[in-house]
Design a protein that fits this description.
heterotrimer, A mainly alpha (about 300), B mainly alpha (about 300), C alpha+beta (about 575), A: mainly alpha, elongated, C: D-Maltodextrin-Binding Protein, domain 2, seven-stranded mixed β-sheet, about 20% strand, membrane (chain B), MetI-like (chain B)
């Protein structure tokens, strides 16, 4: 173990003494934004691994209430232990699965339904547009968290229902954004051109309209991933959270908030996990958008 | 212009009523029985429970309940809270101002912080200022509001003793809740302003202005920002709605008066009159805000003004 | 590009960044220093008796000032008869007086009534009233008013909750003369007099009740030491001193008007905010202090902790015997042995709550202390019992019999009041060890899930009650409050029925207590319940607050309280 470390250190030191590539080029490639992207990427990768094989990474069982309660972070328990005497690190690692599920599933579901409605409204137009948009507006008059709260209360707090509640409250946003994008694309000369040469409507939509209008949706989705975990956390705060043996990060954060002045680590580490995930996903999203959107490429 | 406002109003009324129908369906689906929350199952007899259900009208089939509900709505009769017999309208009247004030203040904070950071990061694109500004913005949207709210209380009330931890009287009690909501909002605004600034900066007229030798500050804040603000304005409209919703959590954390707390209580006890009253109110606020946003487009953007004149 | 401008923006940005770091950093630093103290206090606190050390002050009480008191929950109503939640009673306790008062030694003493006699058959009580008492609205208190009150409380139109069960055996009242009233009962009840001490049967002004109708709960008028000023929903209730008050009960030292000018209750549901508002000095007192904060607040010179164990029924897990296999004694005994209550209470309440051993709490009339430390957790024995019943562990460790998994539907309410959800989580892990799967159902809708739909195997409940007669609602076979079919535990036990029925009418206190002791022993022997904890009502108050007192059910009393200048 320690042998490896010294080798690594030597390599770095070597680079410093006699860089094989010029410093300029190295910095150019590893500029701060690039470093951030790599950092974000590896964090996301790590969280995904945690979600798939948590038992591999977590040192203890996440349900084992066997340790001293509320012990501060130490070597044995890097994130400390919680008020049940569970190892916080193991709980956080195992909790990544549900957190990712809530985030990804609600973005997929909300984005799909919202996107479909928005595309339909924007591309078909006319009565369909009016009808869909009025319905969307009705949904929008009820603030998101209230809708989520009502759905969670109506269907009972389960992981699936939370996803449903969160994604439904996100539908109007996706629908509106995609619709307005499609509207602005629809009038462009290249669409008219395609139409004039007799391309069928659906083909124009798939080939030309959709590829040019979905980038804002992507950005919304990256934000949505984080917000849906947070909305889930808010529901837990309001007493409608999911009670599972291994809670997701949002629930952990909400459940541990009363211990902030006594054992800050119980809620801070799940909170930090959310923050890291949201930061990373958003940084990636920004970069993706910058790459996709031709308008923002630097002159 | 007049005609657009009229059609706008008509559709708005439709939307508000649509919302009320939706609310009815949701509340109908909610589990729970108001009769049981008023009476105590351990002392009340079955006859009394049935009698109360009859009085409340909750024993009727769905369509009849809906018909009663629609009739009351059309008459503008919001009824009384099922739980404590308080008239719903007076309830909203007492609680709405505090919520509106909180939502307004936090939107303002979100807009100011968001626009400032957004412009900063667009101007210094890919420099460390840009990165820090974006991280700060993202930090805001990566924390639940109850969490940042509690942190603010621990810092500013308990440790420093500068500001009160709870209550809704006086401007001091407004600072912390508005801040914790505003921070979240600013996260969204930063991204939007940055993006639209970047788009605008590359446009021909900005390049021309710069080439003319106008000072950077003037170009950015006078010309670029003004154009970049239009999409930001839309999101601020949406945001103020979202922040209204955020008050549900924040009002509980800071123990403030407001309709956010009322509605979460009402949802839990299936207090239909109160739920519908609050949703009606929030629907109206939503419609008004969006009208305001539309109107302010023409004030900021001369192109929109011209378009409207042509129509 | 102007360099100065850029630096200005940059420094502002830096400032905001430091601020955010400061927020997170600060909370971190503060906690580290507190955690050792916490451990210390935990150790010294394991004796677990109620600590009721008020601020010691040798000076004379000072008149004046305003006490701000944060409540964890919003009062449901200020109409005592319609009240169902203790948090409402804590507020209106000081607006109303009762006929009689329960002294700290558990005996009934005069209050609005100066003396009383009981008829030989035990079915009627004749009370002589004070003749100098006036309601806040000027209405004089007389026999007519007493009759009006109790008749109102049992009238179904009133939709009374607790009051109705307290007046269960009340039938009618007769006005003998202006200041003499006779109350008739359907059955002789030894609990009746104690029940009359409860805030939910406080005496309200008949004039006001008629005047306000169903809005009375927002316009309360009583004879108590404080007068109602205003109630702003979700904000709080403001009360002011009743200057004419001169009929304080023996329970308090000051029988005249209280020292405080005003008493303001604030509703602060979020724990951290409630405690923070006292620590920051914004409010002077806060109730329902979370166990994890108690140690730190005790060590803080600026604050005091008051803690009173409440009388009645402790928080208890009821096992629903209408579902197999819980109708079998061995299965219930397995639960009794596998659930390590001591560990639950120590883990979650850090030594600030006492473990409950019986179906009554210590201090309640008839409590059987011999049950204490009676049951030792024994996982092996529990496993053995389930084996004997033919439940065999499957591949996933959960027991199966006839293709049916051994699962428990554990229903708990929301929010996590007194950490009851956390109890469920620990029980889940403990029962996993003996091969029982616990499915926790957290619901806002206990009344429907439990009482209407009967959809549970385990449900926890407790009740503050001045008399062991409170057991009847939970253990007597005639009580059928779950879906009209059975009581909470679906308990049908002739012995318990007999003990409760005889305890109700027995006039000799020693014999009466014996009946309740036997009832408790039977309940424990039959493994009908798993008692968990005794609920202490806790208040954190600024050290400026002197002589805050409580009655035996933990309702705060403000008669003697004054503020140090």
């Amino acid at each position: 173990m320690s042998g490896k470390e010294t080798v690594l250190a030597k390599t770095v030191w070597k680079y410093d003494e006699k860089p094989p590539i010029s410093r300029q080029r190295l910095l150019g490639r590893m500029s701060v934004p690039n470093l951030l992207i790599y950092g974000a990427g590896s964090i996301i990768l790590f969280i995904i691994i945690c979600g798939i094989v948590p038992g591999f990474i977590a040192p203890y069982s996440p349900t084992d209430m066997a340790y001293d309660i509320m012990a501060a972070p130490s070597f044995a328990h890097p994130f400390g232990t919680d008020y049940y005497g569970r190892d916080v690190f193991s709980v956080v690692v195992h909790g990544s699965r549900d957190s990712l599920f809530i985030g990804v599933a609600s973005v997929l579901f909300g984005g799909l339904v919202g996107g479909l409605l928005g595309a339909l409204a924007g591309y078909v137009g006319g009565v369909v547009d009016t009808f869909i948009m009025r319905c969307i507006e009705v949904l929008m008059t009820i603030p998101g968290i209230l809708l989520a709260l009502a759905i969670a209360a109506a269907l009972g707090p389960s992981l699936f229902n939370i996803v449903l509640a969160v994604s439904l409250s996100a539908v109007p946003g996706y629908a509106r954004v995609l619709r307005s994008q499609i509207l602005s694309i629809k009038g462009r000369p290249f669409i008219t051109a395609a139409r004039s040469i007799g391309t069928p409507g659906w083909l124009i939509f798939v080939r030309h309209v959709l590829p040019n209008s979905w980038s804002p949706l992507l950005v919304m989705a990256t934000i949505g991933l984080g917000t849906s975990i947070l909305v889930g956390s808010g529901l837990s705060f309001l007493g409608l959270g999911i009670i599972k043996e291994i809670p997701d990060w949002g629930t952990l954060l909400s459940q541990g908030r009363g211990y902030l002045t006594v054992a800050w680590w119980i809620s801070t580490f799940p909170g930090l996990a959310i923050t890291l995930l949201v930061l990373s996903v958003n940084l990636m999203g920004d970069r993706l958008r910058d790459k996709i959107d031709p308008k923002q490429k630097r002159a | 212009m007049f005609q657009t406002i009229v059609t706008r109003l008509l559709t708005s009324i439709m939307v508000v009523f649509g919302a009320l129908v939706l609310v009815f369906v949701i509340v109908y689906l909610l589990p729970g029985d108001p009769a049981l929350s008023i009476l105590d199952p351990s002392t009340a007899t079955q006859e009394e429970i049935d009698l109360l259900r009859k009085q409340l009208g909750t024993d009727l089939p769905f369509y009849q309940q809906f018909a009663n509900y629609a009739k009351d709505m059309l008459n503008g009769d919001f009824g009384k809270s099922l739980l404590n017999d308080e008239p719903v309208l007076s309830k909203i009247w007492t609680h709405a101002p505090a919520t509106l004030l909180l939502a307004f203040t936090s939107t303002l904070i979100a807009a100011v912080i968001g626009i400032w950071l957004g412009v900063l990061s667009a101007i210094h694109r890919d420099r460390w200022i840009d990165i820090v500004a974006r991280l700060v913005g993202l930090f805001g949207i990566s924390m639940p509001t109850f969490w940042s709210g509690i942190l603010l209380i621990l810092l500013f009330s308990v440790t420093l003793g500068w500001l009160p931890a709870m209550g809704s009287d006086g401007w001091q009690t407004l600072v912390l809740p508005a801040l914790s909501l505003g921070i979240v909002g600013s996260g969204f605004v930063v991204r939007l302003v940055r993006n639209s600034m970047l788009e605008v900066i590359n446009e021909q007229f900005i390049v021309t202005l710069r080439a003319k030798g106008l000072p950077q500050r003037l170009v950015m804040y006078r010309h670029a920002l003004r154009n970049a603000l239009i999409p930001a304005l839309t999101i601020i409209g949406v945001l103020s709605g979202e922040l209204m919703a955020g008050t549900v959590v924040i009002e509980t954390v800071f123990s403030r008066q407001g309709i956010g707390r009322i509605i979460s209580d009402a949802l839990m006890s299936k207090d239909l009159p109160v739920i519908q009253g609050v949703i009606f109110f929030s629907a109206i606020v939503y419609v008004l805000i969006n009208m305001l946003v539309d109107l302010s487009y023409s004030m900021i953007d001369p192109r929109v003004r011209r378009m409207q004149a042509r129509r | 590009m102007s360099r100065v401008k850029k630096n200005w923006s940059a420094s502002l940005l830096l400032l905001s960044l430091t601020l955010i770091l400061a927020i997170t950093g600060c909370s971190g630093a503060g906690n580290n220093s507190k955690s050792p103290e916490n451990k210390e206090a935990k150790a010294s606190n394991t004796t677990g008796t109620a600590t009721n050390k008020g601020a010691e002050d040798n000076g004379q009480p000072v008149s004046g000032g305003e006490l701000t008191f944060a409540l964890a929950g919003a009062p449901d109503t200020l109409d005592p008869h319609r009240n169902g939640w203790a948090t409402g009673a804590r507020v209106f306790r000081v607006i109303y007086d009762n006929l009689v008062v329960l002294d700290s030694d558990n005996t009934v003493k005069p209050w609005l009534a100066t003396e009383w006699t009981v008829s030989p058959d035990g079915k009627s009580y004749t009370f002589k009233l004070r003749n100098d008492v006036k309601f806040h609205d000027g209405t004089p208190l007389n026999a007519e008013a007493i009759k009006y009150n109790y008749d109102r409380a049992i009238n179904p139109e009133t939709k009374a909750i607790t009051a109705r069960s307290l007046l269960k055996y009340y039938e009618s009242a007769e006005v003998i003369d202006e200041y003499t009233v006779k109350l008739n009962l359907t059955t002789p009840s030894q609990a009746f007099l104690r029940n009359l001490t409860q805030p939910q049967v406080g005496i309200i002004s008949p004039t006001a009740a008629e005047k306000y109708g169903d809005q009375y709960g927002h316009n309360p008028v009583g004879t108590g030491p404080f007068k109602f000023v205003k109630w702003e929903e979700n904000v709080g209730v403001t009360l002011e001193r009743n200057d004419e008050y001169a009929w304080g009960p023996e329970l308090v030292a000051n029988h005249g008007k209280p020292y405080l000018d005003r008493l303001v209750f604030k509703v602060v549901p979020e724990e951290a905010t409630r405690i923070g508002s006292v620590q920051s000095g914004q409010l002077l007192a806060a109730d329902t202090v979370p166990p994890q904060n108690i140690a730190a607040l005790k060590n803080d010179k600026k604050t005091h902790i008051y803690q009173v164990n409440t009388e009645g029924l402790p928080f208890t897990l009821f096992i629903n015997q209408s579902n197999a296999p819980w109708n079998e004694l061995k299965a219930r005994q397995a639960l009794q042995l596998a659930i390590d209550v001591e560990k639950i209470v120590k883990t979650l309440y850090l030594g600030t709550y006492d473990q409950a051993w019986s179906s009554l709490t210590p201090g309640t009339f008839g409590y059987d202390a011999s049950l204490e430390n009676g049951i030792k957790p024994d996982v092996d024995k529990a496993n053995q019992l389930l084996d004997e019943l033919g439940w065999v562990k499957g591949s996933d460790g959960i027991r199966v019999k006839d293709g049916k998994r051994l699962a428990i539907r554990y229903v708990e309410g929301s929010p996590n009041r007194e950490k009851r959800q956390d109890i469920a989580s620990i029980v889940q892990q403990q029962l996993k060890q003996i091969g029982i799967e616990v499915n926790i159902n957290i619901t806002k809708d206990i009344k429907v899930v439990v009482f209407e739909n009967d959809d549970y195997d385990v449900y926890g409940n407790g009740q503050m009650n001045p008399d062991p007669e409170g057991l009847r609602t939970f253990y007597h076979s005639k009580t059928q409050n779950v879906a009209g079919k059975h009581n909470l535990g679906s308990i049908v036990n002739e012995n318990i029925d007999k003990f409760l029925d005889e305890g109700l009418v027995e006039t000799d206190p020693v014999k009466r207590a014996e009946f309740y002791k036997q009832a408790q022993q039977e309940i424990s022997k039959q493994a009908i319940i798993i008692p968990i904890y005794v609920f202490p009502y806790t208040v954190a108050a600024s050290s400026k607050v002197v002589d805050l007192k409580f009655d035996t059910l933990g309702y705060p009393l403000f008669n003697d309280l004054y503020l140090k200048p």
